[in-house]
Amino acid sequence: MTHDPAELHARHQAVMPSWLSLYYRQPIEITHGEGRYVWDAEGNRYLDFFGGILTTMTAHALPEVTKAVGEQAGRILHTSTLYLSRPMVELAERIVALSGIPDARVFFTTSGTEANDTALLLATAHRRSNQILAMRNGYHGRSFSTVAITGNQSWSPTSLSPLQTLYVQGGVRSRGPYAELSDADFIRACVADLEDMLQQTAGGVAALIAEPVQGVGGFTAPPDGLYAAFREVLVRHGILWISDEVQTGWGRTGDHFWGWQAHAGNGPPDMLTFAKGIGNGMSIGGVVARAEVMNSLSAHSISTFGGTPVTMAAGLANLTYLLEHDLQGNARRVGGLLIERLRAVAAALDVVREVRGRGLMIGVELVRPGTDDPSPDAASLVVEAARERGLLIGRGGQGGASLRIAPPMTLTVAEAEEGAELLAAALAAAQGMLAGG
To answer: Which of 128, 200, 229, 366 could form a disulfide with 378 if both were Cys (CB 3.0 to 4.6 A apart)?
Structure first.
């Protein structure tokens, strides 16, 4: 059997939507992986610093997960939530204990989009309101309801919406009207903005939804404590707080198991959503909510594919591996080294405006050299140059001008050093091309 990427690309274009994004001028077909490396159909090996968009959380072909999937698949693939499921209950018990939300309940879905869609359903039903507060530059999925709360123009294909969305300031620390303030003054200004915004509403806002670290937004984040300060205002108005942990959950940020824990001064969120990494590639999402909120739906519901036995077995095995091997600690240690290394590289390059992030969730914002203008062209050049050198990275941020670096959380120090060297060469090559152009 031949593997011709150009031929497969032509077939892809003939049957897939034009808006379905592909990386690279000559897209690659990834055929297999092991650990932190993947191989394409032509036999090229790549160090994977994007993990299927933060989804291969532990490692490619992790034996513990593939074994659990195979054993469960050999028993039964699917039953649905109409029947009791031991793997689903066992994983829910683990997640409830880890969530930090008292008297919590879990509803499993198949993706982060569906998880956030469910959280919006719960919040609007519980509060009897379709008003939602969302963060500027945020992203929560591709469904009709989650696009309606997306504050990122590149990922917002329609202005039509089932919700009234009000966008709050604070998700981006180093740009915008409050960028020059100290952290404490930044938080005070954002809280004042929130208070002012609530004066514009008809009252009864359902919820604030926020990513502790904005994923598609380019791994931007507010100062620690912002959402705790917001929480004080929200509680006063009876507004729920939804923490979107689809990318920040399970210890990826190193300092905390959940992103919201950097903002825990006024207690946990009312709901958190999760997906991506928990399945290590299997399709798992979900919502954790206080029982009062989760149980407030007045109609029946099910999840045909959420909580299916094979994905739950994968999630249990993956979570067990993550906890037993302290991958949160590894993300903190190796991620800290990687950030330091990248900041040292960036100091000598005009194309890099900022290296930001925590743990193994690192953003590199690029600009047109000599300016403060975000440069999507620079990001495109770096992503391409990195691939040519054997490194896979992502991109996002304003107009796609930021690099997104999120390797599997088993990343070793040697692999971090290797990736930093490859990225340094790609950045230097891109800066040279921009200067030459």
So the answer is: 366
